[in-house]
Design brief:
mainly alpha
Length: about 60
């Protein structure tokens, strides 16, 4: 889809183009913003990540 906004367009024309641009929503997929700030961690996220990555280096034999 191509929308053309010409120089000197009226406010009404600009609003019509914005309406066309922003009316489309993702029909499928995961809405990560819904979970933003939901998980409360007791430990720093980087420390958790380092600890999990170090599990692969340990020799359990």
């Amino acid at each position: 889809m191509v929308l053309v906004l010409k120089k000197g367009a009226s406010k009404k024309e600009i609003e019509a183009i914005e309406k066309k641009l922003f009316r489309r929503k993702a029909k499928s997929g995961f809405d990560a913003k819904k979970y933003n700030g939901v998980i409360r961690l007791k430990e720093d996220a980087m420390e958790i990540q380092k600890r999990l990555r170090n599990e692969w280096d340990k020799d359990f034999s």
